[in-house]
Write a structure and sequence with these properties.
With about 250 residues, the protein is of the alpha/beta class. About 45% of the residues lie in helices and about 20% in strands. The chain is built from 11 helices and 12 strands. The protein has a 5-stranded parallel sheet with strand order 2-1-10-11-12, sandwiched between helices. Strands 6-5-4-7-8 form a 5-stranded parallel sheet. A two-stranded antiparallel sheet has the order 3-9. β5, α4 and β6 form a beta-alpha-beta unit. It is globular, with a radius of gyration of 19 Å.
Length: about 250
Amino acid sequence: MQDCHILITRPEPENTLSCERVRHHGWSAIPLPMLEIAPIEENDRKAAIRAQIFDIDTFDYVIFVSKNAARIACDWLDDCWPMLPANVHWIGIGQGTTQTLIDEGVPALSNPGHTTEALLEWLKPARMKDQKILIIRGEGGRPELGNKLEERGAKVSYLSLYDRKKPRYSAQTFVMLPDINLIWVTSGESLANLSEYVTRHMPHWKSLPILTPSSRVNQQAIDMGWVNATCANGADDNSLIKATELHTGQQND
């Protein structure tokens, strides 16, 4: 199998972990995060977070939208809840998020799919009526999940634990990178940031194979001019590695 240089655009700390797994499979990993995760540090915002964490036992469902949401939330839960409340249903969107919770001792479940849309299909409307749901996410996250749950009669609250920022890169950053054979992108926001940089500095990258986590983000990539986008059916490493194996196998045919 010929060497495959894969651009990994996950935010840290997940980027480093993904790069390690890519290298373990014999490919070359080039880290270039397209999203920065900044835990909230302002005292007033932290006080508000603490108050919501202390009230988490008042919710029927707590939904974590990402590995970063799960990781940061677990730090807060450890600080505020020596023993987790037993009456809460803990749910992670996607296998990676759910596994992060389980590794931290949170008995989380995951829907069979990997996306918000799959979660909504799994959470049947009748089950959601009058249920209190807390969605843990980053500041300014997608509203679709909460809106759809409210349409089903749920009472939805949000807890934002981090800010998402666009990393700052110069043209030289891209010029100094080795040749890229494949790109991993794991969210619509990361894709948007990558596309902005690529349009400015490396427009020919739009013809490179790019793996996306969902049909929604894959369509977004196509709309942004990526001509070789493929849905990996998940943002977790296992899904992306499987899609990469299919890609490299096709290269060797």
